[in-house]
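Example (one chain per record):
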Amino acid sequence: MEKRARGFWPLTIFFAIFVLFLYGPTLTIGILSFQGPTGGLTFPMRGVSLFWFKDLFQEQAVGDIWGAFRRSFALGLLVMAITVAVSVMAGLAFRKRFLGAGLLFYLTIASLVIPSILISLGVGLIFSQLGFKVHWATSGLGAQLTWTLPFGLLIMFAVFNRFDKSYEEAARDQGATAWQTLWHVVIPIIAPSLLGVALFGFTLSYDEFARTLLTAGSYNTLPLEIFGMTTNVTTPVIYALGTLTTLFSFLIIGFFLFTLWVMARRRARLGSDAGKGV
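Predicted structure:
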């Protein structure tokens, strides 16, 4: 017990310092966003108010904050939908060996180790050379998919490696077609994992900066807009924006967790009804 006690406190202190460095900057921004009307970008606080949150909803002299937010939100939804769909199809395809499977897998994963700025530069150059318009919904979408699809694929690999094929065999024995088996058996079982892929896809897209930098065209996404504001905004309004975007991210995570909880409750209820012979 004494040895355990001696090792407990150093680990606790180390973890506390880690959490402080991890969340300290975000907490500091949250505090400074409540500066008074005469407050600046640093401590000490000059009063406490919601002035800068109100100012955020007024017409800004620089940038297009809410337009950038709408673009990031729309792009995140697109990336999320495509990532989920392609990851499921790829996971199903890789359950069986086919010619070039290994090469295709490593090519997909390679985009994770290539510097993001090079991906952004390459995608932007390809679109320009082919005569296509560099735009957040086209080249920006493609660049972000090189970031989200590998994560979705890896998650689906883990899911299908543990998937019991006897469920599919039972469905086919009952006369179900391949599509019916997929929709009524496979998808419901892997649904929690699909929500995880969806959350990965949306949050990685919503926060992505480097891969969007040279592929967004003339319209900024929210991370690009915030980066631009750091060079010309000298009031705590940028902190208010950071606080709201952080809260929005937590809201999205909470929504997905709530959905998982509802699904777990529903599955438990169905299992209970089946056990009672209902």
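Caption: Residues 237-275 form the longest helix (39 residues).
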